[in-house]
Design brief:
Elements: H1 3-13, H2 31-50, H3 59-74, H4 83-86, E1 89-91, E2 97-99, H5 103-119, H6 125-136, H7 139-157, H8 162-174, H9 188-203, H10 207-220, H11 228-231, H12 235-239, H13 241-263, H14 284-293, H15 299-302, H16 306-319, H17 321-340, H18 359-362, H19 366-373, H20 377-399, H21 402-405, H22 412-417, H23 423-434, H24 440-445, H25 448-484
Antiparallel strand pairs: 1-2
Helix pairs in contact: 2-7, 2-8, 2-25, 3-5, 5-6, 5-10, 7-8, 7-9, 8-19, 8-20, 8-25, 9-10, 10-13, 14-17, 16-17, 16-19, 20-23
Length: 485
């Protein structure tokens, strides 16, 4: 590699001097850690496949997927004029409808839609398109599994033992509404994945990768541009701002050109409309109460492991003050923005949708609490109880289509402010009353026993992968103990 090529490579990848530590506050994850991360990826993916619906839930997901399909069909993003699409799109300069959502989630769905088309080559055009839509509906299952594997590696960056890092990651994913958002194509999960990757890259002196990951989040949800100032609290970003900003400027330029081509204005993403209800009209206290404490959307009710993070935040602050400052700095403006928005609850959805993208970062301190709990048998029991309670809260979201359950409540407000009609409780009643199980295997076989058999196979494979991950982590702990003695 020539000198000029080397300088360009180091600029892009944010390479460090050989004297710098790979991880500022802990050892680099090694080959065993990457093996555990791979096993966790497989385990989470199999778990999500077991509970996948195989379809979309809402019109905004339809618009996201249809945009991807139009790109595959004709290399353009114009949408057909249907009632479902019209609600979440805007007429462009050429008279066609275009999505009002960022292209980040469409880009994330695109390879899955393309894979579905390749796998369905021998089908008729109509069935091939339906099969492509079906395969694309599993995209978030993949991205949740990817988020879980990177979350484990970040836990290891914090010097947690492999055993504690594995347990903390499993609790954070399956004990919170993150696992529910592995179903369907809501863009919050990909936004959170980008934010987590950006955080890890920034704290380990990889500013170009951090900027690229933030660009993914912003391309998925434009309001995440508010997190940019927080990343300059990391020394690596402050020292190399050009590397951090380069991918953001590039991505922003592409988005501006795309907006101008569609609507004739750089800053018009399609969300500029005359709807009088699209305002920041919610009183701040009401919005904050809803986001954190309401029975239907409160993050404290739907995220039991968050209690562990709160208990460990003091210890986390003493060890990783800058990291905590970044988490707070990027969270505050987004929480205020969402609390003020008229649809602070995220429309029809399960759990704290508006906060899903922030949850992985909020749960990082929980790893320190898990480390301490796993030192005693009683602590392991407490951790197991929190995990089981968290999974139980999410269970109705994994089994029931909220779009069918919500209309059976007295009104939408009751699903937000009463425990009886909140998603975690009401969807169970809906399931027992109607037997309306929302699962792709059930739709495919039209047989409860056959579908349950398929779910069992996927769950068994998931459990075996989790077991292998914990066994690998425990073997490391055992080898350390024997060598120290």
């Amino acid at each position: 590699m020539t000198g000029a090529e080397g300088r360009w490579y180091h600029f892009l990848m944010g390479a460090r001097d050989s004297s710098e530590e790979c991880c500022l506050t802990g050892p680099c994850p090694d080959a065993r850690d990457h093996r555990i991360a791979g096993l966790l990826f497989a385990a989470f993916l199999l778990f999500e496949i077991a509970f996948a619906p195989g379809h979309l839930f809402s019109y905004d997901e339809v618009v996201i997927l249809e945009t991807a399909q139009q790109i595959l069909d004709s290399a353009q993003a114009g949408l057909p004029d249907t009632r479902e699409i019209r609600e979440y799109s805007k007429v462009g300069r050429d008279g066609r409808l275009y999505s009002k959502f960022g292209m980040g989630m469409t880009g994330a769905v695109l390879p899955f839609a393309a894979a579905g088309r390749l796998l369905g080559l021998r089908l008729s055009p109509r069935l091939r398109r339906e099969f492509s839509d079906f395969i694309a509906s599993f995209a978030n299952a993949f991205y949740l599994a990817l988020l879980g594997s990177f979350l484990y590696l970040l836990m290891r960056d914090y010097r947690l033992s492999r055993r504690a890092g594995t347990a903390a990651t499993v609790t954070a994913i399956l004990g919170t509404s993150l696992c529910v958002f592995g179903r369907g194509l809501f863009n919050d999960l990909v936004t959170g994945l980008g934010l987590l990757l950006a955080f890890r890259s920034a704290r380990t002196n990889r500013p170009f990768l951090a900027g690229s990951a933030v660009a993914i989040s912003i391309a998925s949800r434009l309001e995440y541009v508010l997190v940019l100032p927080a990343f300059f609290l990391f020394a690596g970003v402050r020292r190399r701002p050009a590397r951090f900003l380069a991918p953001l400027v590039f991505t922003g330029g592409l988005l501006f050109l795309y907006n101008a081509a569609r609507f004739g204005a750089f800053f018009d993403q399609g969300q500029i409309n005359t709807d009088p209800y699209d305002t920041f009209s919610t009183p701040l206290l009401n919005g904050l109460t809803g986001l954190f404490l309401s029975p239907g959307k409160g993050v404290f009710w739907y995220t039991p492991p968050l209690l562990l993070a709160i208990l460990a935040v003091g210890d986390f602050s003493r060890r990783y003050r800058t990291d905590l400052a970044v988490i707070v700095a990027l969270s505050v403006p987004l929480v205020i923005l969402h609390a003020k928005w008229h649809s602070w609850m995220g429309g029809w959805s399960f759990g704290p949708r508006r906060l899903i993208a922030l949850l992985p970062l909020w749960l990082l301190p929980s790893g320190l609490a898990v480390e301490k709990l796993m030192r005693t048998r009683r602590g392991i029991g407490i951790l197991g109880g929190i995990f089981c309670f968290g999974l139980a809260v999410q269970s109705s979201g994994l089994l029931v289509n909220f779009m069918r359950a919500i209309p059976t409540a007295p009104d939408f407000s009751s699903t937000l402010w009463t425990f009886r009609f909140s998603g975690a409780f009401h969807q169970w009643r809906y399931l027992f009353r109607t037997g309306d199980w929302d699962n792709w295997l059930y739709y495919l076989t039209s047989s409860v026993p056959a579908a349950l058999g398929g779910v069992f196979v996927f769950l068994l494979a998931s459990v075996l992968s989790f077991r292998a991950a914990f066994a690998s982590a425990a073997a490391e702990n055992g080898s350390i103990a024997s060598s120290s003695s």
